[in-house]
Amino acid sequence: MEGPLIIAAIVLAMGGLVTAIIVWSLHVEKKRTEGMREFAGALSLEFFDTAPPEVQSKVNRFQLFNSGRGRAMKNVILGQTDAVSLTLFDYQYTTGTGKNARTYMQTVVAMDSERLQLPEFTMRPEHLFDRIGAAIGLQDIDFEDHPSFSSMFVLKGTDEAAIRNFFDIPLLDFFVERTGICFEAAGEMFIYYRASKRQPPDKMRELLEEGYSVYQAFVERVSR
Known about the structure:
Oligomer: single chain
Strand content: 25-35%
Number of helices: 7
């Protein structure tokens, strides 16, 4: 009887561990939501537990929001000035199945403004396999006069000429100082985030300021 009892004890212990992990995860998420709600309130910004439909429809044009399954946008913060609309939120999606399933969670800043006229492009950190891909002809827009940027980021888009024209030296210099960022832009709107990284609520102001600095850099580029 010892064998069945040991197995039963192991099963019960594993069940208890799984339950504890679930309870702890729910607690962490609740505290995060409370923290982001407090942050929004301190800045007199609107807060929503989940994304209003009009917010979801605005960002659906970007690749991030068309990847994987189990997509969820939550802890949504909205702000508006005469010049720009701001959306800050947590976003997650899952790829793979079974043991290969992986959930990606990140905090995203989205801004849109009539002052922006951006070419359609995506930008993300460059890795080893990207260099191999570029060697066999996969798209990565590089700049011979700015090797630092070219070695840090994969830049892609349908209108390469427009993208090259838009990314002048001051803008390339600007992004070189911001390691690890992912970026998508089109027309009057862009999104800005670090893949698989959620910003702690007490650091949310830093992310917001960083996103606004990107907006300012784009406005300056449009005016040059």
